[in-house]
Design goal:
Oligomer: single chain
CATH class: Alpha Beta
Distance between the termini: 38 Å
Radius of gyration: 15 Å
Order of helices and strands: EHEEHEEHEEE
Number of domains: 1
Strand content: 25-35%
CATH architecture: 3-Layer(aba) Sandwich
Structural class: alpha/beta
Strand order of the largest sheet: 2-1-3-4-5
CATH superfamily: Probable inorganic polyphosphate/atp-NAD kinase, domain 1
Length: 144
């Protein structure tokens, strides 16, 4: 079975749209099996477990929240994540939507550097936070 690359999209990203299809085409031309997943606001841990076997990279297209969720899914399997910013700010991503083709070409050629980032999760079920709240922190930023 060929090595795989996953593409995870924010719900507002058209999974059949030009950026996703172009990324898919470039990867398939290089012999990768490509799977796609459209994340939703009600996602659960382990949602990608069935897709991770043989996956060498997950491309996260969305904002920082999509990247954090994708990183959480990929962490247990030690799969790197390439974040493509399709949001407003993109504090955690270095690639902007429209630049994904060249970033994927560089990755496939081995021209990249992994940046390890810590991921910490804290949850509270006290009455002070109703409904129960979960915070995810990475490199000094906060996402709820």
């Amino acid at each position: 079975m060929a090595d795989a690359v996953g593409i995870v999209c924010h719900p507002r990203i058209d999974i059949g749209g030009a950026p996703v299809m172009e990324a898919r085409r470039r990867l398939e031309e290089r012999g990768f099996r490509v799977w796609t997943y459209c994340a939703t606001a009600e996602e659960r841990p382990g949602a990608l477990e069935g897709e991770l076997n043989g996956t060498r990279l997950i491309v996260s297209i969305g904002g920082d929240g999509t990247l954090l969720w994708t990183a959480q899914q990929a962490a247990a399997a030690h799969i790197p994540v390439l974040g493509i910013n399709a949001g407003r700010l993109g504090f955690l991503t270095q690639v902007q939507l429209g630049e994904e083709g060249s970033a994927l070409d560089r990755w496939a050629a081995g021209d990249f550097t992994l940046q390890r980032r810590a991921l910490l999760e804290a949850a509270s079920t006290t009455a002070a936070f109703s409904p129960p709240t979960t915070w995810r922190f990475t490199r000094g930023s906060r996402s709820t």
